[in-house]
Amino acid sequence: MSPNALIPSHRKPRRPSASSRALRAGVTGGFLTLAVTGATVPANAAEKPVAETQEMPTITTALATSAAKSADTAEQVAFNYERQALQDSAFSKAAKAAEKHKAEAVKKAKAEAKKKAEEARKAKEAAQARASRSSERSTLSAPSSSTATGSTATLVSFLKAQLGKAYVLGSSGPSSYDCSGLTQAAFSQIGIDLPRVSQDQSTAGTQVGLDNLQVGDILYWGSAGSAYHVGVYVGDGNFIGAQNSSTGIVERPLNYDMPTGAVRVL
Predict the structure, then answer these.
(1) pLDDT at res. 209
(2) Residue 174: is the preceding peptide bond cis (ω within 30°)?
(3) pLDDT in tens, 59-96
(4) CATH code of residue 222
(5) Does residue 205 fall inside a structural domain?
(6) What total number of domains does the chain contain?
(7) Phi, psi for residue 55 in degrees, rounded to 5
(8) Parallel, antiparallel, or unpaired for β 218-221 and 229-235?
(9) 176-177 and 166-167: which strand pairing?
(10) What are phi and psi of 141, to 5 degrees?
(11) Entry pTM
(12) Which structural domain range is residue 222 located in?
């Protein structure tokens, strides 16, 4: 046995190994803090704080900030889309209103044009009717292109010789006549035998227009077949007839008492 075997050892205890280091971790103020203790520090190393700290942004805070920014961006985009939609809607409504207004204006303009055209047409027709009546009166008042010759001259001569004689209803001359009695007596001078009354004389010959009269045509008032008065056209726009008891047998222009129609027997 060694002499030193029973002597208690005075060796110093071994320092804790590196594996016995304690790791402490904690989160303070939003940062991750790592502290290492119990490590052996070389003698010549500069003195450092008891705790060595490394700060890093917390993952939760970074995510929240990113999410907030994304939310703001999404909200702005949504606002822009909504504003654009409202603008588009307003433009669409304005365009529709303008189109409707335009259609109504066009419709109104067409109605006005149609109304004016109708008024112009009626005015034109009225003017044409007035011109036609004026032309008819002028034609009837103008001298006839057919002068009294031969039998018509004899007829007119007889009628003019009766001017001023009395009108007596039912009389056939020679001192007085009624209207149909005078025409019957006049045509008998040239060998034409007429019916006695006005109604029959108005259909005794060929119906002719008042714008195409010739000397010797029988004029009638009323309708053909039921005339109530007759006379004889003597040219120059005049006729001779036994008018009434007040005037007797007279010569008058056609427009003095415009006849209804005429018949031609010559």
Answers:
(1) 95
(2) yes
(3) 566 676 777 777 778 888 888 888 888 888 887 888 88
(4) 3.90.1720.10
(5) yes
(6) 1
(7) -100, 135
(8) antiparallel
(9) parallel
(10) -85, -20
(11) 0.46
(12) 151-264
Is 208 inside any structural domain?
yes
Alpha-carbon distances of 39 from 19, 45, 46, rounded to whole Å: 10, 13, 14
Q: Per the structure block, which two tokens stand in for 170?
A: 């039912």
Burial pattern 156-194, b for ≥16 Cβ within 10 A else e, equals: bebbeebeebebbeebebeebbbbbbbbbbbbeebebeb
CA distance 62 to 68: 10
Bridge-based pairing of strands 261-264 and 31-37 is: unpaired
Domain for residue 202, yes or no? yes
Cα angle value 229/184/220 (rounded, 5°): 25
Place of tokens 């303070």: 28
How many C-beta neighbours within 10 Å does residue 88 have? 10
Instruction: Note whether residue 234 is domain-resident.
Output: yes
The CA distance from 128 to 121, in Å, is: 10
Residue with tokens 């016995």: 20
